[in-house]
Structure prediction request, 1003 residues.
Amino acid sequence: MSGASITAESIGRRSWLKPSISRERRWALWASYIVLVFFAIGFLAPPYFELVTALKTSQQLGSGKDPWFTAHPFFGNFIGIVTNPDFQTFFLNTVKVTLIVVVLTLVMSILAAYALARMRFFGSQAFATGVFLTYLVPESLLFIPLFKVLSFLHLINSTWCLLLVWPTLSVPFCTWIMIGYFSSIPKELDEAAMIDGASHLQMLWKIFIPVALPGIIAATIFAFTVCWGDFLYPLAYLFTGKQMVLTAGIVSDLIHGDVLDWGHIMAANVVASAPPVIIYAFLMDYYIAGLTAGATKG
Amino acid sequence: MAQVTLRKVSKSYDQHVQAVKAIDLDIADEEFVVLVGPSGCGKTTTLRMIAGLEEITDGEISIGGELVNDVPPRDRDIAMVFQNYALYPHMTVFDNMAFGLKLRKFPRDEIKRRVDEAARILDIGPLLARKPKALSGGQRQRVAMGRAIVRHPKVFLFDEPLSNLDAKLRVQMRTEIKKVHQAVRTTTVYVTHDQVEAMTLADRVVVMNHGVIEQVGPPQELYHNPLTRFVAGFIGSPAMNFVPVRLETVGNQLMLRLTDEIRLPVPASRVDRYSPYKDHNVLLGIRPEHLTELKDPAKPNVVRFDARLDVTEPMGMEIMVHFRINGTELCGRIDPSVRAEAGEILPMSADLNHMHLIDADTGRVV
Amino acid sequence: MIGGPGFAAGPVEAETEAAGGEESMADGTTGISADTLHGFVPSIRRGGLRRFAQRRSTIAVLMCLPLIALIAGLVVYPFFYSIYLSMLNRDATRFIGLFNYRYLLNSDTFDLVIFQSCFFAITAVFFKALIGFILAHVMHNISGRDQRIWRGLLLIPWVIPPALSTLGFWWMLSGNYSAVNWILGQFGIPQIAWLSNTWTARLWVAAVNVWYGTPFFMIMYLATLKSVPDQLYEAAAIDGATWLQKIRFISLPMLRNIISITVLFSLIVTFANFDIVQILTTGAPADTTHVFATYAFQLGIQGGNISLGAAVSLFIFPILAVFSIFILRGVGRRAREGM
Prediction:
């Protein structure tokens, strides 16, 4: 009796389930797109607004008319900012220091990660944990004592001081994700290379680096982004325009220099934001892989 | 070309765990030796010690008459094929095979000649420009072997090279490995947990268990004359049946007593061998193929009995039947023409000419 | 997608096998003449394996040395130096013990700083995690190419240097030409001085941080969601679970660990945030939006009282210390679960 009724019910249920699931899916898809559009507008409005502002003359900006739209884009701000010698200095300084720090970061983190992932030594485990903890230490905890350290070294108000402090932001994380990438390389690969006659350096150079290339790209992107966007250290340690980098320069110098020409400032903002965004656009997968690798680890 | 010698080789981890216990092994030049045993028996550790990937705690290993205890792997002139192939993922097949030669600074045309030769032997010529990712499991296996062949090493070491392949491919590659060995005749040490692989490939099989060598010998000898209970049970599929019995004399006939009802006469030829174990509890070992349907009762030393079949497994050329005697599960092998259904009682015979008797205390075959 | 690493392994699964004797790099070339084709004789070097191992660890330490120097010199030393500095008087001439701390804790302004730091961090992290969670699920619903595009778009706030985008926010919010007020004006809502009003300023500071940080949470949760087998959701659907029940009984438990890691991590980072407050309000109005970092900057760098500034920034340390321990535990568990 009861068995029969259950069968009947389950059959009825199944015929009811199928269209319902697809209907539910369609509904969920629509809802998802609505939510996404809503947040996409919210997320992209500020950069869009910066771009629109950068494309307006000061008269247009002062008119109080629709700040979100311009019918006649004006490129004078971009030309003005790109030819502005201060801005050029900021830009060159940033490129120079960032690139050097990226290279330093890669060398330091790849060497250390290889040693930590493959050549266990006394205290290596604890040291790896220490590296991770260092990554958690925020710059705002250390910028004051570092100010004293840098003034002792006579590096205050010198762009080169960033060569010392920026690696503290980039190297620990890069080492951490490189340890992860290196550890994921099967050990048989080293053994095969060892039997094939490779030395440690050959193993690192000919096997580990090529195999972990996605990780190295991710680490490079991370180091670049972190340095390029850093604001606190340059703001705290650099004072004069000649030594400035983009972030601190745009915020402090350009604002105080001109009489708040917002078209100019936003043009500078857009140009300064462009390199990380462009790198991101081309290497999005590596970018995201690096991001999630860090979280898989921390 | 070289022989490999192990003298009292031991490996222990943290003082306590002894993975390999003072083993002695002589591997002749051009010989194909297979180390076989269950996981954790020390076979892989032994292989890795020969390769130099694992430190030797004690003892001596020599390759080609030369002591290699302190020689790093790359100077031992060995080549190894790994279970997961360990192909360099960023290199083409050609570069994978050439890598070891390049590192050893071989001239370019010699490298090319050797790789082409290996590719010909292994039939992977068209794949040379591909990356490992674009290869099937069997092809990767060939490349891994190719990487070993091009080096013309003294010794090939194989670490369970076929266990990542599906069953069909495994059989195919097994033949392939044998062919390659016949072509290049390099001394080979091969590790596997699969006794069929061991039997089919080896000139000599080394059965290991718990870090010691149980028995060394040609496959047929291990099969027919196992020295220990472990070897008897490990070699052969399905495994040998073991039945606890007691050796008794009834009248002046030496009998194997299973239960009060079941007593089996010991073949006359073995009485002398077994009589010291009179009144001992021993294990009777008998292979499934010697427990068959009742055929020719006239044959000497064949006893008949009735078995109630629990399970029958038709295999095509034979039927495996499972039944119990006195609570012990046994497996027999009958002709497919015999009608056998689970639950039925089947008259069967046991051929005691091929029995083994194992001392239950020492685990050794009597 | 690129072949990212599996990361099933632990944080540092330092290798257990003491791989026998490899030679060091220096003396690596084995003598081979081109004509020895078959079986050259390797040059055998005898020397205790123990020495190899020692040499190997020496190389390893050498390879770590730059990193060790960096951490020791520019992280560990400054940290302890900071503690020392915080116990000096304004001119750094006299040791005054815990006076700076007592002074700060008695100051009304610093009470505001503590309150705002906590309010800012907690509010911002809560909304970042919540919106990130929602967006990850929403994103997970849509498939393949579309998902890539949307993910790419929604990650943009995280990519732009926060200092620069905060400047854009400032311009959006302030003055007569506030673009936000213009939108509200279209609906007849009067102008609001967002940044000169304590609570609206506090909310906007948090909002900018949410805008900047949410994509990070979204990406983390999305990556973890992708690792949840679809069959779980299908099984739940067959069992008759509603979408809310699916989230409650499948997504949340599966994401629990990554949620706790990201939240703790973000709490540290947000708690120590500098850029947004510095640019958007610089603490105004009347120091009500100052957080530890900006207040330390104002006292230490701009005000020249390094000791007091050091004391302020050290207040970040307790939360860092406590949360780090939990993060390490979470990462360890994650490694063990192999997710």
